[in-house]
Amino acid sequence: MHPFVGTSGYQYTAWRGVFYPEKMPTAKMLSYYAEQFSTTEINYTFHRIPNPKTIENWFVSTPESFQFGLKAPQKITHWSKLRDAETLNYFLGVVSDLRPKLGPILFQLPPTLKMDRTLLADFLANFPKNFQAAFEFRHQTWFVDEIFSLLQEHNVAVCIAESSEFAAPQVVTANHGYLRLRREDYVDADIQRWADYVGSQMDRWNTVFVYFKHEESGIGPRLAKQFIQAIEA
Question: How many domains does the chain divide into?
Fold first, then answer.
């Protein structure tokens, strides 16, 4: 199993002097970040579909082994509730230029959207099999066996998300894992617990993507580094 560990986002001016050198230009942040982490989760794509120049910049600023997790546009997940095939196909066509650095697409559903098996089944039936995907469900009704089985049929991961308000079940439905660790009060024992969990899935996951909340204070990079040390120990 290959673990990819990083933070959700990288371009934060508040990280200067904490993670980045004090006077580092914004344009050089990604290349610096990619020297220390193997992946980042891009929230930019939730708000707008990137243009080819942005994709090219992401690609050339990172090493060959780097992976980008991309959050699916809100037009797909929030506005159309997974019913906008045209936008999905356009988005996938644009971001495919990131290959082979393209990691999973994260579909973060709105917390008000309750379980709808037919809706999800129709979406997955038309989702291209040559893309990795993960679903972050934020309404408890989704966490049932019939949804887990459906995701497993399509090799789509349940996003295992943890925050101070919510924790998704640790269910494996794909050959790749996707973790979003969002709490602000992690201590050493918490990091070790998650590292042990990831290690316990070695026979089930080919790859796993682990993202810590960015935290403008710069705690995200510190936690990500601590996690890397824990899984390598």
Answer: 1
CATH number of domain containing 66: 3.20.20.410
Q: Within 13 Å of residue 229, how many CA atoms lie on the same side as its CB?
A: 8
> 3-state DSSP call for residue 143?
coil
Answer whether 134's CB lies under 8 Å from 105's CB: yes
27-45 per-position pLDDT tens digit: 999 999 999 999 999 999 9
Question: 96-129: per-residue pLDDT in tens?
Answer: 999 999 999 999 999 999 999 999 999 999 999 9
Burial readout 198-223 (b: 16 or more C-beta within 10 A, e: otherwise): beeeeeebebbbbbbbbbeebbbbbb
- Residue pair 178/69 in contact by the 8 Å Cβ criterion: yes
Distance CA 221, CA 141 (A): 33
What is the domain range of residue 207? 2-232
